[in-house]
Design brief:
The chain is an alpha+beta fold. It contains 6 helices and 5 strands. α2 packs across α5 and α3 (54-61) crosses α4 (65-77). The chain is elongated.
């Protein structure tokens, strides 16, 4: 049975399936930067919320403290992030995305935009307008999920 919100007839099951399929396509689009999903997730998170403590990254990425420490060490070695002492608590380290790390995220986004533009050309004008009108609501939905 497909759950519906009876006020709008929004089929949550259909929305979930479409979002999953689009996510899968966008994640797998060819890119110059071949990085693991976890690495990219950490860089994306830091591109929005830098700086972050290691404990915050562990929670947001849903990995172990050991795994995030190893990943941050690799990212730091590759120049994508840097660690700095917390100005309010010298015992704590904060992780910052570097300009190089931000450039990785930006270049991947531009690549996805170019690829997605090709797909959009296959849509009718009405379908393109429907997607355009849904963007504010989808953005709000994403914000609610980030709280």
């Amino acid at each position: 049975m497909k759950p519906k919100n009876h006020l709008t007839d929004l089929n949550v099951a259909d929305l979930t399936l479409v979002l999953e399929n689009l996510t899968r396509i966008l994640i797998r689009l060819p890119s110059i930067e071949k990085l693991s999903f976890t690495t990219l997730s950490v860089l994306h998170t830091l591109s929005r919320k830098s700086p972050m403590r290691l404990t915050e990254l562990t929670a947001s990425e849903q990995v172990t403290q050991s795994a995030i420490t190893q990943l941050v060490t690799r990212l730091e070695r590759d120049g994508l992030v840097e660690r700095r002492p917390d100005p309010n608590d010298g015992r704590v380290v904060q992780v910052y995305i570097t300009e190089l790390g931000a450039n990785v995220i930006d270049s991947r986004r531009l690549d996805r935009m170019a690829q997605l533009s090709k797909f959009i050309q296959g849509l009718s004008l009405e379908e393109q307008q429907a997607i355009a009108s849904a963007i504010p609501a989808l953005q709000h939905l994403a914000e609610l999920g980030n709280d």
